[in-house]
Description:
The structure holds 2 protein chains of 2 kinds.
Chain A: H1 2-28, H2 37-42, H3 47-50, H4 56-59, H5 75-82, H6 85-91, H7 136-139
Chain B: H1 2-11, H2 13-37, H3 41-44, H4 51-58, H5 74-78, H6 84-104, H7 112-115, H8 119-122, H9 125-131, H10 143-155, H11 164-167, H12 176-183, H13 195-210
Helix pairs in contact in B: 4-12, 4-13
Amino acid sequence: xxxxxxxxxxGFFLILGVMSLVGSEVxxxxxQLKITPELKEKFxxxxxxxxLSFKCVDCHEGQGDDPENFKAIDDKGCxxxxxxxxxxxxxxxxxxxxxxxxxxxxHDGPKLYCDECHFEHKKSDNMCLSCHSNDVKLWMRPTP
Amino acid sequence: xxxxxxxxxxxxxxxxxxxxxxxxxxxSWILYEGLHRTSDDKFCVVCHEMKPMVAxxxxxxxxxxxxxGIKVTCVTCHLPHDNVFAYIATKARNGAVEGAIHFFGNxxxxxxxxxxxxxxxxxxxxxxVGCHTNYKTxxxxxxxxxxxxxxxxxxxxxxxxxxxASCHVEVGHKGLRSMLNYYKPEYEYYKGKLDKKKEEAxxxxxEELKK
Lengths: 144, 211
């Protein structure tokens, strides 16, 4: 009777163990990507992302396994880590006092697309410059 | 003389042990009191240069602004916890170094915004993990969040190690960058134009500290 109980408990833990293994397997199995040094050279990351050792698929999620065919990622991709546009606006709240917050534009509020200013693999831009060519550099730093 | 003391100890082993324990208890109690008194916002804000950090702390869920009203003491996040001796050593060192800069250096020249880049060094992950124990498995955290936490784990103890605060900016101090700017604007353009915000912040800070 006693050994039966022990066996039952053992079986239970075994199943649990296997289950947790399977669970972690799912997380680890992203498509096998071949990232050559040339690719890394061609698609360099911005220093603020580079120093966190992000992998291509951390941004290019679900875009297949051919890096050459990766597409741009949209706001949703950025916000999976950067929370919400309102949160980003709040991080630069001090600028709101002079209506210069790029994340909470006096014209459009916290609604602009990230890629109106930020790029990952090339130099960023700043859409405010198209009308305020002289003032923007006083209001904020160059877009990171 | 020494021989005599030795003899007393030898003949009164029990008493010596008892006295030893008592002295040990007493000194740890004093130590505890000392550490504790120097652990919270009221102590840290004694130096005016800590004001913006304490003000931003009061706006954060870790500083009493949340629904459940938890208030995590400053040194929980800012001193190592793994070892009592390291704890006291860092504490003494911090006190000494910070004190010295305060009295001999020009604290107003410190660039706090730039200093934030060092946050991995002065924020202790053990504290975060100590409370957020299930950060790896918590289903309430988004999928990307859990993926990032696995990423964090995979870099642990490697040369590329990152910290909780590498990603979770302004944790413990909601709106830290803005608060620093109210006290001392980063860019020329804002100088003299945010003083009203600073006044508001100072007023709120004074009220919070009275609580």
